[in-house]
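FAQ

Q: What does a record look like?
A: Structure on top, sequence underneath. For example:
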């Protein structure tokens, strides 16, 4: 079994499918992609921001586009007798890619739990940016897993490991979709929490304004420039004013408490 690193931009196939190979190599620059070139020869692209791969695989050889790390990893798999054919290598790469994405999903779920607690406790503007970033990451993972599922299904071999890889990818894709929906719900919960906080502030301001309204009315009344005002020349006038104002405040407070407005 031949395994080597080549430059796909200058690599030439010998079986008359060079044009199809060149088109596939060009199409796979920005997305996961698989194309059957001839017989059992596949061009495979696994694209993500962490470790994009371009592979050419059939029953006899496994060619990698300028990625020596993958060759070293394959050598370790061979030492452990985990591979017999090039498609076994592709299967193991698929499992490793899937495990990384599953860890990213677990990280997103843990971040959501922390954000949810903070939002319910004290919503802040910074949390909105964190939710948006989580949503972008989850959308990216969902799209990536969907592309991987298509790739693995196209390259599928009739072995239990391939069946397990496809099932796990489908399960992770369903989980990613659920995470996206939960993040959208979290964004709605954030907005609801912000609205509730604003409502509480407006409610407090309304209660304070209502309590102070009688005092403002009395202050305006006694502030009029007339000589014949009640208590205007009385020594105890100011104390009576404070007493009546205090009674207004206490009665208003008791009334609001009974109505559960405070």
């Amino acid at each position: 079994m031949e395994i080597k690193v080549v430059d796909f931009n200058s690599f030439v196939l010998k079986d008359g499918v060079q044009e199809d190979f060149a088109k596939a190599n060009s199409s796979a620059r920005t997305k996961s992609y698989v194309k059957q070139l001839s017989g059992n020869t596949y061009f495979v692209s696994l694209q993500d921001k962490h470790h994009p791969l371009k592979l050419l695989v059939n029953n006899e050889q496994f060619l990698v586009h300028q990625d020596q790390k993958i060759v070293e990893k394959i050598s370790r798999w061979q030492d452990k007798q985990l591979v017999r054919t090039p498609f076994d290598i592709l299967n193991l790469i698929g499992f490793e890619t899937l495990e990384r994405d599953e860890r990213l999903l677990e990280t997103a779920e843990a971040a959501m739990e922390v954000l949810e607690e903070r939002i319910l406790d004290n919503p802040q503007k910074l949390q909105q940016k964190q939710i948006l970033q989580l949503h972008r990451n989850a959308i990216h993972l969902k799209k990536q897993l969907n592309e991987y599922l298509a790739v693995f299904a196209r390259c599928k071999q009739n072995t239990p490991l391939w069946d397990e890889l496809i099932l796990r990818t489908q399960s992770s894709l369903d989980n990613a979709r659920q995470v996206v929906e939960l993040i959208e719900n979290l964004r709605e919960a954030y907005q609801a929490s912000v609205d509730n906080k604003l409502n509480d502030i407006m409610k407090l301001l309304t209660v304070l304004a209502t309590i102070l309204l009688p005092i403002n009315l009395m202050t305006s009344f006694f502030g009029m420039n007339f000589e014949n005002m009640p208590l205007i020349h009385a020594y105890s006038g100011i104390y009576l004013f404070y007493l009546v104002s205090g009674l207004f405040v206490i009665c208003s407070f008791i009334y609001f408490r009974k109505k559960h407005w405070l």
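Q: Is there anything notable about this one?
A: The two ends are 78 Å apart (CA to CA).
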